[in-house]
């Protein structure tokens, strides 16, 4: 009955072998060691339709080519203030074609300097491919916006603030997921489960960067904002998640880290090897694609469960199918938790969920859902 679902799941975790978003040539390129993946940056001051180079890490012959490309984009109105644009550019660099993120940061308007209206800085971050950078669009937008407060036309802080910040863009915006998988190794399944189940995660014995990496991993893996919750249910879930007895604790004072209150299930465990394979190959772009596929599969299963619940309100056979689905998907605990939050105002649906929880409780006997 669930053969097609199993096939779909296998396709999801096999992204490193045959992925819809990455062709074979790109996957082969991403299999290189991280030391072989070059990243570049450039920053320009934009004034009265002209571009002035402020700093760049590109080879001298490549920078004028990038400047020409940006000028064309600006003349077509393709760069809007504060909105990142990602494309493929061909430059005189070893990679020849490379992904390029460009963002126009507009200079703050001032009554004292009306002539500055429309002026600003164009920040370019280059590395990997267009498809790869698109997976990190949110992170890149946030990172570039972090420059806004320290940019001035004179750029007196170029060497002390701006340049060091731009040099770190790849490490800070792309590699955080890779660092977390490298840190936790096979224990990453517990973090995936915590992200799906809105469980509070506490990191101890680690520096602020590691704590931030884990927090960003959880945010990237969670379904927050996708599941509809009413205010009462959301507050209850928040209170439960903040219970220190249920929080996942990651103690980094030892190597490897030790975990407490860890919980996982078969669904999350099945993805562990795909994450480890990509991390071992120093493949941050493919690693992010696997994480997106993980979320997509969880969302698909959640939508299937909602459909089964609606059908089960009118059919005992549909209720039976719903039970079989929850057993086969391996993610029953998470799906039911989210379904309860979303259907909290629907008594009939809550009744069905109660029956499903009792069924799973009777048939798991301490095993993972």
Description:
Helix 1 (3-13) packs antiparallel against helix 13 (284-312). The model is unreliable at 1-6, 16-20, 23-35 and 365-369 (pLDDT under 50). It contains 16 helices and eight strands. It is of the alpha+beta class. It is elongated. The protein has a five-stranded antiparallel beta sheet with strand order 2-1-5-4-3, sandwiched between helices. A three-stranded mixed beta sheet has the order 6-7-8, covered by helices on one side. Strand 1 and strand 2 form a beta hairpin. 51% of the residues lie in helices and 14% in strands.
List keywords for this structure.
alpha+beta, 8 strands, disordered N terminus, 5-stranded antiparallel beta sheet, 3-stranded mixed beta sheet, single chain, disordered C terminus, 369 residues, elongated
Q: Mean of the pLDDT scores?
A: 83
Number of helices: 16
Low-confidence runs (pLDDT<50, min 5 residues)?
A: 1-6, 16-20, 23-35, 365-369
Report strand %: 5-15%
Order of helices and strands: HHEEHEEEHHHHHHEHHEEHHHHH
Number of strands: 8
Oligomer: single chain
Taking the alpha carbons of the first and last residues, their distance comes to: 18 Å
Radius of gyration: 24 Å
Helix content: 40-55%
Q: Which structural class do you get from the secondary structure elements? A: alpha+beta
Task: Characterize the overall form.
Answer: elongated
Strands across the major sheet, in which order? 2-1-5-4-3
Largest sheet: 5 strands, antiparallel
């Amino acid at each position: 009955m669930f053969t097609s679902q199993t096939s779909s799941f296998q396709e999801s975790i096999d992204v490193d072998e045959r992925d819809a978003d990455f062709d074979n040539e790109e996957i082969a390129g991403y299999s290189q060691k991280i030391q072989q993946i070059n990243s570049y940056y450039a920053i320009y001051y934009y004034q009265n339709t002209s571009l002035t180079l402020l700093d760049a890490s590109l080879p001298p012959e490549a920078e004028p080519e990038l400047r020409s490309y940006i000028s064309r984009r600006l003349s077509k109105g393709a760069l809007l203030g504060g909105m990142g644009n990602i494309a493929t550019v061909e430059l005189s660099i070893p990679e020849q074609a490379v992904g390029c993120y460009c963002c126009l940061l507009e200079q703050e308007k001032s009554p004292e300097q009306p002539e500055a209206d429309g002026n600003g800085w164009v920040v370019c971050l280059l590395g990997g491919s267009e498809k790869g950078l698109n997976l990190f669009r949110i992170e890149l937008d946030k990172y570039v916006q972090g420059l806004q407060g320290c940019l001035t036309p004179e750029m007196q802080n170029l060497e002390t603030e701006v340049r060091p910040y731009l040099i770190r863009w790849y490490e800070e915006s792309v590699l955080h997921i890779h660092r977390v998988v490298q840190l936790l190794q096979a224990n990453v399944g517990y973090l995936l489960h915590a992200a799906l189940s809105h469980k509070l995660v506490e990191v101890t014995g680690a520096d602020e960067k590691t704590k931030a990496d884990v927090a960003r991993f959880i945010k990237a893996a969670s379904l927050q904002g996708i599941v509809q919750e009413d205010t009462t249910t959301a507050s209850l879930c928040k209170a439960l998640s903040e219970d220190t007895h249920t929080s996942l604790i990651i103690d980094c004072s030892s190597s490897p880290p030790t975990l407490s209150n860890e919980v996982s299930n078969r669904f999350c465990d099945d993805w562990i090897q795909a994450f480890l394979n990509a991390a071992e190959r120093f493949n941050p772009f493919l690693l992010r694609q696997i994480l997106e596929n993980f979320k997509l599969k969880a969302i698909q299963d959640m939508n299937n469960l909602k459909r089964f619940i609606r059908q089960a309100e009118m059919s005992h056979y549909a209720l039976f199918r719903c039970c079989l689905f929850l057993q086969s998907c391996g993610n029953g605990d998470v799906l039911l938790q989210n379904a309860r939050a979303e259907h909290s105002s629907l008594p009939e649906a809550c009744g069905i969920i109660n029956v499903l929880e009792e069924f799973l409780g009777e048939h798991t006997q301490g095993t993972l859902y």
